[in-house]
Design the sequence.
């Protein structure tokens, strides 16, 4: 077996492992039931992911959008807008954080009565 053939086998093995991890972590993720919104670690609101709408958070510093079972921050008054760039969340345990505004939005699952968040 040549060095080239061994390299091809190794690359294929890495691709198979990557595909398996993708299937396990992304396709097997539990759909969330809703989101919990916290400011400074204190819960201020809960919204169902089936309850579509736009919600002003934290005195209007952030806008949460829920549509098609996904949640995302569409507007923020922070300088870096990283919370807007984090995209849409829908799976249990996913979260969006706006550190300048001390805001977190975390998806909780169908079985969760409370969400533990380490701040």
Sequence:
């Amino acid at each position: 077996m040549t060095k080239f053939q061994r390299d091809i086998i190794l690359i294929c093995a890495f691709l198979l492992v990557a595909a398996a991890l993708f299937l396990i972590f992304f396709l097997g993720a539990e759909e969330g039931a809703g989101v919990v919104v916290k400011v400074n670690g204190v819960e201020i609101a809960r919204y169902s992911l089936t309850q579509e709408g736009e919600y002003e958070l934290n005195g209007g510093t952030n806008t949460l959008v829920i549509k098609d079972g996904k949640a995302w921050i569409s507007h923020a008054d922070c300088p870096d807008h990283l919370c807007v760039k984090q995209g849409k969340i829908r799976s249990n345990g996913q979260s969006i954080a706006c550190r300048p505004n001390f805001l977190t939005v975390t998806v909780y699952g169908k079985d969760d009565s409370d969400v533990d968040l380490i701040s």
Remarks:
- Residues 34 and 48 are 4 Å apart (CA to CA).
